[in-house]
Each structure stands twice: as C-alpha cells, then as structure tokens.
C-alpha cells in the first residue's frame, strides 16, 4: 500500500509573478482556499498517512501556515466561529502528517526528491506536483489502485497539443495494458517538437520506487543545469523497471501561470 507522499514546493514561482514576489504560490487562494490544501485533501482521501514537504528558506511561510496558529486560537477563543474552528481543526490534522525538508538551491525536481530519502520507509511512494490540480476525480487514488493491481510504478498521463510538448515530460508507449493504462517504453524531459516521441505527457502525479534514490544520487544535471526526475525514471526503465502511464479521469488545471491560476478558481467555483 502507498502510505507516504512527497510534495516539492521549493520552486521560485516565476510564472506567477508578480503574485509570487513575496508570497508562496502554494498558499495563493483558489476559490477561497490555499492551493496546497487541494493537494493535501487529495492525499488524505487517497489514504496517505505521512507527507514530506520540500521547501526553501524563501518558502518558510508554508511551514508557518501550519505551525504559527496563535491567530486562530485568539479568534476561536473570542468568537467561536464554527467555520474558523473547522478550518483550524483541518490544519491541525494536516500538521500531524507533514514533515519539512529544505532545498535551498533550485536544482530541479530530481534533487528535491533526493532530499526526502531518509523519510521514505516503503518500497513505493507518491509524488504530487502542486501546480497540477486534477478535479472531479481523485487521480492519486486511481493510480494507487493501478499500483496495487500491477505492483509497479505509475505516472498520470494526458494528451497535449503537439506545439506544447516542450512544456512536459513526453513518453512513448511500449504496449497497451488495459483501457487508459499503458506500459512506457521511454520518456524524455521537455523535448522539442521534432524530438518528441508522441504528444502523450506525464502530469504531476507519480508513484515511484524507492530505488529511484540510487539513480538520482548518481545522476548528472540535464537541461537547464537541473536534475530531472524523468532522466532517473528512464534509467530505471532501461533496467526493466515497469512504469505504467495512467490516463486519468477528471479535469486537469494548471495553477502555475497567471491565466491558469485564474481559470482554476473559475472551474472549481463551478463544482
């Protein structure tokens, strides 16, 4: 069973400037709720018990959000507002689940994952990228079901426009496994249109094997001087580790750009 998750949060958030000049993008409200809480709700509903946040010193406010609760206590003592009490109880529940590690240099998602090594106790773990929201269906829960059935790694997948393949990790199918699930032959990080083996993209949900830490430790920086998780995944595929691409149900929302952030609030408000 998958009981642990990691969430990289140390990114600079430059696509959301000026909103992120002094504010952590993960705490920006989406339809009245901090974005990170949608990710935490997804984890809790999928049965996750322990979560590791990877933050930087510049993102200390994320830790403060869960730990500096004197304001909540004062308001609750004074007004006893049921809505505020409910929100505070939720924060306390999540606080018990979360550990924090630091990635103070922006060296990529692979480097962020490596920072969590000492906390991962099980053979497989879940990783969620907070820029990617998936509504109307719990993607993590669906992926865990696939993992339990095939005892393998799983990545969320969707088709993207060919002109936009350079934004994503793009994979090539080895063979069909069942409806909406495919065994991956290869994956490449942010290819050019000519390099892309398909228009099938890996989205920000991964069930990864603990063995990936060994690959990441030895891995040299790739594009942009960063350590990419897709390069480590390809190394494992080359050694016959099975990775399944799961075409998730639900609606994908990109919260990492100004346009996408605004649209996310609009779409969630419709639910």
The major β-sheet equals:
5 strands, mixed, barrel
User: What spatial order of strands do you see in the largest sheet?
Assistant: 8-11-9-10-12
The tally of beta strands, per DSSP, is 13
Residue stretches low in confidence (pLDDT < 50, at least 5 long) are none
Which structural category fits the helices and strands? alpha/beta
Order of helices and strands: EEEHEHHHEHEEHEEEEHHEEH
> On the 0-100 scale, what is the average pLDDT?
94
* Intertermini distance: 30 Å
Give a written overview of the molecule:
By secondary structure, the chain is of the alpha/beta class. The protein contains nine helices and 13 strands. It has one domain (4-269): Alpha-Beta Complex (Spore Coat Polysaccharide Biosynthesis Protein SpsA, Chain A). It is 34% helix and 27% strand. The strands form three sheets. Strands 8-11-9-10-12 form a five-stranded mixed barrel. It has a two-stranded antiparallel sheet with strand order 2-3. A two-stranded antiparallel sheet has the order 7-13. β9 and β10 form a beta hairpin. The two termini are 30 Å apart.
Please specify the SSE layout and strand pairing.
Blueprint: E1 4-8, E2 29-30, E3 33-34, H1 35-45, E4 50-55, H2 60-67, H3 70-79, H4 82-97, E5 98-102, H5 109-114, E6 124-128, E7 132-135, H6 139-150, E8 153-159, E9 169-178, E10 181-189, E11 200-209, H7 212-218, H8 229-238, E12 243-247, E13 251-254, H9 258-269
Give a concise summary.
The chain is α/β, with parallel strands linked by helices and 271 residues long.
Question: What are the key terms here?
Answer:
271 residues; 5-stranded mixed barrel; 9 helices; single chain; alpha/beta; globular; Spore Coat Polysaccharide Biosynthesis Protein SpsA, Chain A
